Amino acid sequence: MSSIAIVNQKGGCGKSTAAGHLIRWLYSKGHSVALVDADAQQSSSMWIHAIASNESEKFTPTVEVWGTSDEILEGLPEVVSQHDFTIIDGPAGISELTRAILLRADLALVPVQPTGFDIRSAADAVRLIKQAQSVRGGMPKAALFLSRAVKGTKLKEEAGEVLEEFGLPVLSTIIHQRQVVADTYTQELTVFEMKGRPATDSAREFNALFEEAIAL
Ligand SMILES: Nc1ncnc2c1ncn2[C@@H]1O[C@H](COP(=O)(O)OP(=O)(O)OP(=O)(O)O)[C@@H](O)[C@H]1O
Ligand SMILES: [Mg+2]
Fold this sequence. Notes:
Elements: E1 2-6, H1 15-28, E2 33-37, H2 43-54, E3 62-65, H3 69-82, E4 85-89, H4 95-104, E5 107-112, H5 116-135, E6 141-146, H6 154-164, H7 179-187, H8 197-214
The structure holds adenosine-5'-triphosphate (ATP) and magnesium ion.
Adenosine-5'-triphosphate binds near residues 11, 12, 14, 178 and 181.
């Protein structure tokens, strides 16, 4: 009975990757889950379908692909009412669709890559969130997090501080750039099922990120 949107109009920051991992994480905790894929490329829905068809255990999430504001505004309440958690994978570029998502979601998570350009672009997502919060009396709850960060870079250290200036909570967990995460699409898995140290490290990060987000 709760919806979590991963939004940021900036492309390639890790929205679909986070959405797919979040749905698997919630499912593994015993929750009923739905994915609403609002991204025209449909990468998260294709990935989740592939994982579901690969599975020996029964992973049967509801998957909707909705590319219009009307579908989001009119369709979401029913899907949300039928599942413990509904995850919405936001689109790149299309502000109107993101605006509709933010009018319905309970929680918005904004992945931001630690580059100057991406941080500046995050202001667009923050602006839409604040508009929705103003219309909806403070909803959706929202937080930013650093995504695809390269270990040991100065930029990463500075980025966290800059994000604080947007006036929204910044999650303390950072999702680092790792080849295993990039491989999850073609492997038709998430890092939670993958073997080896990089996958375990990444799984630990996603686990910590989602624990933080759910507690907001
Ligand atoms: N932590 C990570 N480490 C390595 N690669 C990653 C990581 N997160 C995402 N990627 C890769 O970066 C690319 C973009 O990620 P993703 O598709 O999740 O971003 P997106 O925000 O959904 O993009 P779009 O805005 O185009 O929908 C993909 O190839 C993905 O595999
Ligand atoms: Mg995407």
